[in-house]
Write a structure and sequence with these properties.
495 residues, alpha+beta, Creatine Kinase, Chain A, domain 2, 16 helices, globular
Amino acid sequence: MSVPLIGLETEYGIIREDLDTSDPVEESMKLLECCPRKSVFRAWAYHREHTHVDMRGFQVDRLEQDEEEDEFCEQDRQRPYSYWEMKSDRVLVNGARFYNDHTHPEYATPECRTLFDLVAHDLAGEEIVRECVRRRNQDLGGSPLQVFKNNTDYSGHSYGTHDNYLISRRLPFDTWVRYLVPFMVTRQLFAGAGKIGSEGRNDQPFYGLQLSQRSDFVESLLSIETMTKRPIINTRDEPHASTQDYRRLHLIIGDANMSPYATALKVGTTRQVLAVIDQERLPPAIELADPVSDIKRVSRDRTGQVALKRTSGKTITPLEIQEWYLEHAGNSGAEDGDPQESEWVSREWARTLHDLRHQPEKLADRIDWAIKESLFNDFMEAEGLSWKDPVLQSVDLEYHNIDPDRGLYYGMQQAGEVTGLIPEKRIEKALDTPPKGTRAEIRGQMVDRELDRIKKIHWTGIEFDNGDTLDLTDIILPEDVERMLNSNKEQFAWK
């Protein structure tokens, strides 16, 4: 099993339209209090977090984001809430985590084994957040609270969508980096959510549609930081599994996709690339001379044809890089999940790159930035606007609004103008059912059946109020899950 577990974390933008100023920490907290789903509340085991260990073989005493944490704590002292009230952590019966990440509600899917399970759980997270927004707005007597599944507020702030992959520790970390960086630089050709204009510091202003919302905020190749000096490859060594056997690749430069097709292609292609890296099946890697700068260059050229300089002195285009990965990784990954899903990834990866090269207008039914391009072109033509008009940023935000009556993506979905992927029944099931064959299944069953006995809970374990503990660190494969279910059936009164 090259990549046995995958997951997504999404931070949502949140605003109150009826107030000139509002406290996003309080608004996120209030939103989480409205969650009606069965869950363990305010019991996350933070003592199990290990955020200062670096995959390059050292541990840092302090992160720059710790300073931001300290600033938040200083502000928090002025609020009439405890730390636990503000974090408002929930571990849901479907195995997911839903909490207040300072100024954003964040939904982390349960660990999934199959790609379409993951997309279904990401969409279930959308629905759970939307459910909370409806309930909060009922309390407020209108619809002043609005929440967005995106990565920028157009005021210079970026919030993350992180994709996670459990990979082997067998290979040196440098090997993963060398082969993965060119792919990550160019993955935005189909994974980018699209963005009007630019927000980069010390950059020449850009007018028009970028591929990616996160590209303006990437500042380094490698870093353990997540809130400053955002890297192409995050080096935090926190596998949430056996540290001897696994790494968790925590990728923080991805966009929040409204299109489930784009989400599936983003994660599916990355998983297949990781599989061939692990299998050591790739020829010598493509090495870019300046990958950090290339992130923005790729984002600001929607054709995929901008020339990127290689360390050899030659140049290569983003589209050529993706075609190289497709050639060498397009048929990998079936062993990690459903072979039909791997076939879907290979087929759709090839189709999308072909369309981008030959008929890019065909992408407008499934790739977020291309959907936006078509939508904005029609809007600009009808209103007599140009790409420089600031009203387009407001339209861009509304594309990501999770209110089905306002969200532009949902309007296109209802009109049948964008590609569907996951049946509604599968999304509905994911609201309350964890993915089978994962430790999330154990976690979900514990929340469902032993809720009142849980004292602390984490990805890697559960502590009960009578002193019992359930260690999930080594629960990775389906047979591990089955063994745990059977061995603890009597102790935890499972049926």
